[in-house]
Amino acid sequence: MGTRVWSAAGTSLLEVLTALSVAGFILAIAAPPLRRMVATLRVHAAARMVRADLEYARMAGLRGGRGAVVRFLRDPDCAWAGTRGGRSYAVAARVADGSPRPSTLHTLGEGVCFDVTNSDSLVFNSRGLLAPFNNRTIRTLADGARDSIVVSVAGRVRHRPQ
Fold this sequence. Notes:
With 162 residues, the protein is α+β, with helices and mostly antiparallel strands. The protein has a single domain (13-161), classed as minor pseudopilin epsh fold, CATH 3.55.40.10. Helices cover 32% and strands 30% of the residues. The model has no long low-confidence stretch (mean pLDDT 84).
């Protein structure tokens, strides 16, 4: 009788199905941590962007000698983030008569919202101090990930990753 010779040129259907089921199992285990990691990275990136813009506003106010304003805009889609939840903010330095210059609008990434304590805007005076004199906290949030930025009365902007 003849012996059967297997060809090494291809794979059987059983081998392909086994490889696909193992890959699907690994993907099902890895997907939730990857989703959390992406949300955390988005929140950290948004917090760094807000921090950089706050520091820019403070320095622009000092340079111009008139102060600067950062106004956080509420968004109904971010109501879950808090009472002052939003997705975009405007940065403007003040001009000679004390009114703000035309502002630059900034928007956080998709799915990321912020919440601001005490007020919808931060005003830096001509000396770089926060007015009125109370600390502010800006939290960035998305899918369970959160981060915060604290602006002190002295105008110092601190990023506190959580």
